[in-house]
Design a protein that fits this description.
Layout lengths: L3 H23 L5 H12 L4 H4 L1 H7 L5 H22 L9 H30 L6 H13 L3 H11 L5 H29 L3 H27 L1 H9 L4 H21 L3 H11 L4 H29 L10 H26 L4 H11 L3 H13 L5 H26 L4 H14 L1
Helix pairs in contact: 1-2, 1-14, 2-14, 5-8, 5-13, 5-14, 6-7, 6-9, 6-15, 7-9, 8-9, 9-10, 9-16, 10-12, 12-13, 15-16, 15-18, 16-18, 17-18, 18-19
Length: about 425
């Protein structure tokens, strides 16, 4: 049985720290999610465990973190369902080519550069127990990740999810991370098994079948909810139960396929009917609880597994090189592809700045790499710091591109640009 008092104490501390840091960073124009991310890092070994190790061990003993993890994953799944529910697919008409080009370029460029960087890092930050192939593929995959949930929260807070730019960014990030997770699955297969072809065939074939079923049979079945809405005059508890079941089953399916549960949840939101009598009440019932309670738990759990104190001496020079590769590969690769797809340079650079957001989805990938022994703790710490810095960069770079220096004014500029076009 979990220690209920301890779990409630952990939740209270996490929420207080997240609220405080969210408000603090909001004063300098950063989204609240950035403050919650930093709060998670501060509660872990990087700050609290360093300053007050006894207090850290008492409040967050390793044996208790599994319960925080379960709650955080539930919150992440349902938040991504809300993101899919809010996504207006009509904004993607005529933008599909741009989204595909941008997403693939934002994977290929950083993947190639990360794999080249592995030539330099492997002799120093790995050992013979790890094959160079697995190490290089992992570095490429880690450089390719975009923080889909963090980016979604930023766009939601800035109020631009329903603009063309927001829709293309969300679609690009979704395609991006599905591909990146597939690459990561290949890395895991190479690191753990010799049966590569059958494992990859199952993953890719199963994902394709899942997508077809969701976009056809499940979407058709969910349209019956519109008739139930008319009969009951609104959203009933039975309808909410059906929606929750679909979200959980969809997330379970993609998790079993090796992609990630968040994409199943996102797909469940995408295929939901867009009847305002269904979508709006669902958003109202789930949104505040997800944002205020569950997502901070997700950020905190990941931060509790992260230690930045391992970076010392000339490893800071290595970190600078990692930063250069990460920004050049992700931001510039995305921007050039978006420009080639027909967007203006201003829009293309804005897309590039958004795709450079890595957040804690990057930390999830890094934790996988650490767990399977592909990367060392020191490299793990440097990559964690890179994820935080690139996420912190997003708001100031995006605001400078769109002028105004504040997310709300930047969002207004985006809407004006979209309206003019």
């Amino acid at each position: 049985m979990p220690n209920t008092v301890l779990l409630l104490s952990q939740i209270a501390v996490i929420l207080l720290a997240g609220q405080f840091m969210g408000r603090l960073l909001g004063r300098i124009g950063q989204p609240r999610v950035m403050g919650e991310m930093l709060a998670g890092i501060m509660l872990g070994p990087s700050l609290l465990g360093w300053v007050a190790p006894s207090a850290s061990a008492a409040l967050f003993p390793a044996s208790s973190l599994g319960f925080v993890n379960v709650l955080s994953q539930i919150g992440l799944v349902f938040f991504m369902f809300l993101v899919g529910l809010e996504l207006d697919l009509r904004l993607l008409r005529g933008q599909g080519r741009v989204a595909v080009m941008t997403s693939h370029a934002s994977i290929i460029a950083p993947f190639f550069m990360g794999s080249l960087l592995a030539l330099l890092l492997y002799p120093r930050l790995s050992d013979d127990s790890v094959s160079f192939t697995a190490f290089a593929l992992f570095m490429g995959a880690a450089m390719s990740v975009t923080a889909f949930p963090v980016l979604a929260r930023m766009l939601t807070e800035w109020g631009i999810t329903k603009t063309r730019l927001g829709a293309v960014a969300i679609a690009s990030a979704a395609v991006d991370d599905v591909t990146a997770w597939c690459i990561l699955a290949v890395v895991i297969v190479i690191a753990r098994s010799s049966e590569v072809h059958s494992s990859i065939a199952f993953m890719l074939g199963g994902t394709a079948l899942y997508a077809v079923v969701m976009l056809t049979l499940v979407r058709w079945a969910l349209r019956r909810l519109e008739g139930a809405l008319r009969r009951h005059g609104g959203l009933s508890q039975d309808m909410v139960a059906i929606v929750v079941f679909v979200v959980v089953l969809s997330a379970w399916t993609t998790e079993r396929l090796g992609v990630h549960a968040v994409f199943g949840a996102f797909m469940a939101g995408v295929v939901m009917p867009r009847d305002e009598r269904l979508a709006r009440p669902l958003l109202e019932r789930f949104h505040d609880l997800m944002v205020i309670l569950f997502l901070p738990l997700f950020f905190a759990f990941t931060g509790l597994r992260t230690s930045i104190g391992l970076i010392s001496g000339d490893l800071w020079a290595v970190f600078v090189l990692i930063m250069l590769v990460a920004v050049a590969g992700k931001m510039l690769g995305s921007a050039v592809a978006a420009r080639s797809g027909g967007l203006s340079w201003r829009e293309a650079l804005a897309i590039g700045s958004l795709m450079n957001t890595r957040g804690l989805m990057e930390l999830v990938v890094l934790n996988v790499g650490l767990d399977i022994g592909v990367i060392s703790p020191a490299l793990f710490a440097m990559m964690v710091l890179m994820a935080l810095v690139t996420t912190f960069m997003t708001q100031p770079v995006f605001s400078r591109i769109y002028r105004g220096g504040h997310p709300q004014r930047s969002a207004a500029g985006v809407r004006a640009t979209v309206a003019a076009s």
